[in-house]
Amino acid sequence: MLSTAAILAAALASTGLSGKEVLPFIADDYPKALALARAEGKPIFLETWAPW
């Protein structure tokens, strides 16, 4: 089974956008992300993982 990261990398490579930031990620600042999403009327995508 392919991981989400592998699928995303393959999709970006096929579009020629590999190496460029396509989506603006806001790392470790939920209040900022929430305020920006509300101001722009956009949903929030949360990526979560655990080392275990």
What does this structure look like?
This protein is mainly α and 52 residues long. It has a domain at 22-52. The radius of gyration is 14 Å and the shape is extended. It has helices spanning 4-15, 30-40. The chain starts with a helix and ends in a 12-residue tail after the last helix. The longest helix is centred in the first third of the chain and has 12 residues, at 4-15.
How many angstroms separate the termini? 18 Å
Largest sheet: none
β-strand amount? under 5%
Helical fraction equals 40-55%
Number of helices: 2
Shape: extended
Succession of helices and strands: HH
Mean pLDDT: 79
- Spans of 5+ residues with little confidence (pLDDT < 50)? none
Question: How many beta-strand runs?
Answer: 0
Strand-pairing-aware structural class? mainly alpha
- Please tell me how large the radius of gyration is: 14 Å
Features:
52 residues, mainly alpha, 2 helices, 44% helix, extended
Topology of helices and strands:
Blueprint: H1 4-15, H2 30-40
Short description:
The protein has two helices and no strands. By secondary structure, it is mainly α. The chain has a domain at 22-52.
